[in-house]
Amino acid sequence: MAEQIKKSIEVKQGILENKELMLLIEEVSVKAVELYKQGNKIMLAGNGGSAADAQHIAGELVSRFYFDRPGLPALALTTDTSIITAIGNDYGYEKLFARQIQANGNAGDMFIGISTSGNSANVIKALEECKTQNIITVGLTGEDGGKMEGLCDFCIKVPSNETPRIQESHILIGHIICSIVEEAIFGQGFNSPLSTVAEVL
Fold it and tell me: What kind and span of H or E run contains 188?
């Protein structure tokens, strides 16, 4: 138990000490702020634990993170069982997210694909679809980056090759992005949950 905690701390310390990685996380956060100001949205997807991370991050954006404010548009592409089973049955599991992006994505949106290996086939297909629609692509991966690295506008690679440690850091990074976005758009002094995003922006 103590060893697992120690390893988790070491990975996060590695992120903290990597200036390029820290700047990359900040750059992605700034891009997210910009796209929200332009009326766009964020879509997220992954498999297994990464699907849960996608839903977690989307929830923080749509509901709230640190304080009450209007919801920000975010979609986890892992939640609608009718859509997922229809696409899986008709087109195959690899098209699970790409088909949803084709249907719901718009130029200027952001897609965050989450995969510890960087090689999840359905996330890769989603990234390829994003390129055809001028959708900003962000990858959350492990230290290798896998095939996703070459397909992402921004690939945030956690310095670890252990799935649990990578996933722990993915949600940390997701929380950092949510925090920066919320603060940049609304500010800590914001206290009117009846306002709309359009009114604030």
Answer: none
Q: CA-to-CA distance for 121 and 101, rounded, in angstroms?
A: 15
* Integer Cα distance of 125 and 195 in angstroms: 37
Bridge partners, residue 45, by sequence:
113
| H/E stretch holding 109 | none
Give 76-110 pLDDT, tens digit per residue: 999 999 999 999 999 999 999 999 999 999 999 99
Q: Which of 181, 160, 178 is nearest to 169 (CA)?
A: 160
Angstrom CA distances, 135 to 35, 108, 118, 153, stand at: 10, 5, 19, 10
Q: How far apart are alpha carbons 62 and 158 in whole angstroms?
A: 25
d(CA 185, CA 87): 35
Sheet holding 42-46, edge to edge: 74-76, 42-46, 110-114, 136-141, 154-157
> Which two tokens mark 151?
């397909």
pTM: 0.92
One-letter amino acid at 162 equals E
Question: What does the pLDDT look like over 20-29, one tens digit per residue?
Answer: 999 999 999 9
CA–CA dist 10, 169 (Å, integer): 11
Tell me if 62 sits within 8 A of 71, measured CB to CB: yes
